[in-house]
Design brief:
The protein is an alpha+beta fold. Helices cover about 30% and strands about 30% of the residues.
Amino acid sequence: MTLDPESTRQDELRTGKGPWRTVLQRPAGRPLEADTRCDVAVVGGGITGALVAEHLTAMGRDVVLIDREREGFGSTAASTAMLQWEIDLRLAELAALYGFPAAAEVYRLSFKAVEGLRGLVGTLALPCGFSARQSVYLAAGADGPRALRDEAALRERAGLPGSFVAHAALLTAFGFDRAGAIVSPGSAEADPLSLCHGLLALCARRGARLVRDEAVAFDGAGRSAAVTLASGRVVEAGRIVLATGYVMPDCVRSDLHRVASSWAIATVPQPPQALWPGPALVWEASEDYCYCRTTTDGRIVFGGEDEDFDDPDRREALGPAKTEALRDRLHALIPQAGLAIDHAWSGAFGQTQDGLPLIGRVPGDPRLLAAYGYGGNGITFSFLASRLIGALVEGREEGWFRHFAIDRPLPG
């Protein structure tokens, strides 16, 4: 099989620059001088590939990580890195699709993924601005307090933390003039670029080989798999992991998946009185929701205005209008904030009809594993993907893998 030679490049995955400035030395990928072998070949050097490679090297596996451009500077550099366990579909919506037991299990797995990521960053002492955060899920649009009260009750039934906060208490605690919100512990934030580069540096110290080249084809028909690179070199591996960002290669197909576009801004550093307490991660209970967080130097990162297309030229052309729209929405939510913008950027992101990622074996080729379709939970689901893929490499199957199977049927 071949990988799509026209697949999206880094400069088409995002436009503009976010506020992330890695403080770590990024290990540089190098061309292969000869064909090689390994246990696992990971294709993609963004945050997903880095988390997968870290987990596999910790398991003692010999890993070759392949990226055609600068590791971490594709989709990862466009991430706002809001590490939430709450997913794009509310628990009530997911339960309507798959039943309450399955939906509750997925939510608990997402919660544990953020816990696991927190533990990993702490154990490895990675300097990436990782901080535990509450999340504030604001009433918006047609979804008023009653819908959020019902959602909070359903989460309590599932054993998840958090509670509904009415208007007066919300205004006092956070300064948000909304009808209500669900306030929950257990989320986090980080600098995605520093996190990615810290993980890659650790992998390199453990012996992983970082290869700068483009994977153009693979063969999984024999007792081992093989990746053919644009240079003509071949990497033979027991397993291949595809972690190439938000655009899937043509060998991975799912009717659940689509690629959309999103925009984000970062303000100049704000005085402390302009920021909400916490500072919590904030997002809205509406289909066209916006979201915001702060950075370690006091900026407000504000994103949203999503559109259902992935054309990079069209996305770039809309940039100025989307920046102004985000500035207006920021002012409406946080009137005391300064509106001077220091960074504005956009990016492609993969999402699915049911809000769940696509992680596991590629149908028809058990030696090929993949991780795509993260929606608004990019890094949270990347951590979950690293654990699921690590188990598959070890030959372990668990019941919860079915929730994220690439070939799962369309809901409903």
